[in-house]
Design a protein that fits this description.
Number of strands: 22
Shape: elongated
Number of helices: 3
Order of helices and strands: HHEEEEEEEEEEEEEEEEEEEEEEH
Largest sheet: 14 strands, antiparallel, barrel
Structural class: mainly beta
Radius of gyration: 25 Å
Distance between the termini: 58 Å
Helix content: under 10%
Length: about 475
């Protein structure tokens, strides 16, 4: 009885690129530019570019279209749906809000900038697949039920950052992020008593609905970063997001197994009723950009970012339930592989009297973190191709930004799936069934936000250091 965790990490695993309205409009290519409080997401060294006090408030709405057509037919002797083809199932949830709020200030110092903020990962943490479907006029179990029924995940990154400019052309920075996780999720596990009581590996009479409600209120991680301008009009940035470990604890719940006479209760022993543990990887970003015109009033720029994500260290998610019958330990294999992405984006700025209009665009490609045989519904960790557009209107220190991105994931037709049901309490049958079928996933992101430079508003001077 174990569920998986769509928590915070980078794009090819749990996330799409990326976060913040300006970054989204540039296709996630913001590592070298990083000249707003949004730097707490991409490259905290860029905070040292700022003079005075700056604020950002962004809201991204992310929608997920995810469907699965399982191959084969129901194997559930004695039930009206036995032998019927599996129907296609779809994720059914509203777009998920993903805010970013941050403030940065230099407190009047010449080479230091401090920032605080909070944001969530660009990941859709709400998914709902059907518990039952109509097959031949009967309410049959959802064909995907042993991989995922529903999940609701909230992850927050409170961020405390500082950046320093030791030389006119060099910026360095670091951030401390005590991440917070709240996870709720349900999945069907199997209590395979014996072949007579459970006539098939997924017999509905031996299914048990298991759920988790878990918290980890302090999972420390951080960021180290540098940014340099080696020659005029060229900037390069490097950022490292440190590995993260979640150890979540809380309550578990299970339904009664129809074929099993004893009721299973959770949390009848000392300690939490359920736990979940997972590790998240090191993420490295490198960006290089060329900009046109003076640095405090650019006419435009183009940036290329490369991102490495060490997903190969993530093999399983482990959890346990404390019940009246036994402590049930389980692991859900994912067997991820390292992933890489390229992001190309930029902007062109038009002068409209005292105002400026920035037109942005970008595109990206990411390799898959999930091998084909480990395709699952908890994370659509597939290869991704994305395109984005955006715009920003700036007047006297206020900027209104908007952006839109579309992420296409090539359809996967899986014939060699290694994903099988979770078997608890009793040994698994000698032969199990797998999650073969057709996976289709698409994501769209619509963004709107505001940034403000108090120096530009009150002192009528540039918000960037000379």
């Amino acid at each position: 009885m174990c569920v998986a965790l769509p928590a915070a990490a980078q794009a090819a695993g749990f996330e799409f690129p990326d976060n913040g309205v300006e970054g989204i409009g540039r296709g996630g290519a913001f590592t070298a530019k990083a000249d707003s409080p949004l730097a707490i997401v991409y490259n905290v060294a860029g905070l040292a570019k700022l003079r005075g006090t700056h604020l950002v408030g962004d809201l991204n709405l992310a929608g997920l279209s995810y469907s699965f057509a399982r191959a084969g037919t129901y194997n559930d002797p004695g039930q009206p749906w036995h032998g019927q083809p599996f129907p296609r199932v779809r994720n059914d949830n509203a777009p998920m809000p993903l805010p970013v709020v941050a403030v940065a200030t230099d407190f009047g110092l010449r080479s230091l900038t401090f920032a605080v903020g909070v944001y969530g990962p660009p990941s859709i943490g709400i998914r709902n697949f059907p518990e039952t479907v109509r097959v031949g006029g009967a309410a049959a179990p959802g064909p995907q039920r042993f991989d995922l029924l529903d999940e609701n995940v909230i992850v927050a990154f409170p961020t405390f950052a500082v950046a320093w400019r030791p030389l006119p052309w060099l910026y360095v920075g670091g951030a401390f992020q005590p991440a917070v996780l709240h996870l709720q999720e349900h999945v069907d596990a199997m209590a395979f008593i014996n072949a007579r009581t459970c006539p098939a590996p997924e017999a509905s009479a031996c299914a048990v609905k298991a759920g988790l409600n878990l918290w980890d209120r302090f999972a420390p991680t951080g960021m180290l970063a540098a940014l340099a301008r080696p020659v005029e009009h060229v900037e390069v940035g490097l950022s490292a997001r440190l590995p993260l470990e979640f150890n979540a604890e809380g309550d578990g719940a299970t339904s009664v197994v129809p074929a099993f006479p004893a009721e299973i209760t959770v949390n009848n022993k000392p300690g939490p009723g359920a736990t979940l543990k997972t590790n998240l990887p090191l993420v490295l970003r490198f960006g290089a950009r060329y900009f046109f015109g003076p640095r405090d009033d650019e006419r435009g720029d183009v940036e290329l970012d490369a991102v490495y994500e060490g997903w190969g260290r993530i093999k399983t998610f482990t959890s346990n339930f404390n019940t009246n019958l036994a402590t049930i330990d389980a692991s859900v294999p994912h067997n991820y592989q390292d992933a890489f992405s390229l992001r190309l984006g930029g902007a062109y700025n038009l002068r409209l009297g005292a105002a400026r209009l920035a037109l942005r665009a970008g595109a990206y490609y990411e390799s898959a973190a999930a091998p084909e045989q480990w395709s699952r519904l908890d994370f659509d960790a597939f290869a991704r191709i994305g395109a984005a557009v955006g715009a920003g209107y700036k007047l006297r220190g206020f900027t209104i930004n908007a952006g839109f991105a579309y992420v296409y994931m090539p359809t996967r037709t899986v014939t060699n799936s290694q994903v099988t049901p979770i078997y608890a309490l009793f040994p698994a049958p000698t032969q199990t069934e797998s999650l073969n079928g057709v996976f289709q996933s698409r994501i769209w992101v619509a963004s709107l936000g505001v940034t403000m430079s108090l120096d530009e508003v009150l002192k009528r001077r540039s918000g960037l250091r000379d």
